[in-house]
Sequence to fold (249 residues):
Amino acid sequence: MKKNANLPALIFMFALLIVWQCIAMGMNAAYILPSPTQVLVRLWELRKPLFTAHLPATMLCTGVGLAISIALGLLLAIVMDASPSAEKMLYPLIVASQTIPTTALAPLFVLWFGYTIWSKVLVTVLITFFPIAMTVFDGFRSAKTDMVDMLKTFGAGKKEIFLKLKIPAALPYFFSALKMAIPMSIIGAAIGEWLGAQAGLGYFSRRMMTQLDGAGVFAPIVLLSVVAMIAVGIVSWLEKKIITWRSSL
Fold:
């Protein structure tokens, strides 16, 4: 059964690719909608600049932005859990930060930091820290009140309750947030590169668009999707190795 667990997803993906191929062949306009085979061929033709220059630039931006987002999100979640006053003060601001269109702020980041990595990192952090902070905060709040009361009766302080109860309770939430944050961090880096950069897959896709190269536009997008799926798969594997008690429930 385990060997066939991914079979429905593979069949569905294969069916979508066939539909895409048929529609693209029917349109016969590769500059608007290239077929999957045309995208793969173009990806192979552009493999040198994509893999040696643009993919490393995007992954560096994604990695730095994701690391900052994890640190910031965890810090905000811990502070809000520790202090109801901090929760009332920070929660609305965190939510409000997600109402600002990223495409409106990204050009400002470029003006402030130029075409350096930090303009793209800020876009990534702005998109990514929110699900980490909110999800981990919900994880802390999921710790059962009766368990907290029981630990208090045994003389446990806030530090012991946090380490022995709240962190284990929040771990599944953290991994769920991380699986959401990884694709979002890649999207954030690509958006930042699209609006202002000298290298990166987002920049490369925009450059191909100016040349009306539809397959060239899709090639870095496909590469980004594959990288995101691999990264999420690694996180899922780590989750199963670390949260061993979930499989026993």
Notes: Residues 110 and 119 are 5 Å apart (CA to CA). Residues 43-243 form a domain with the MetI-like fold fold (CATH 1.10.3720.10).
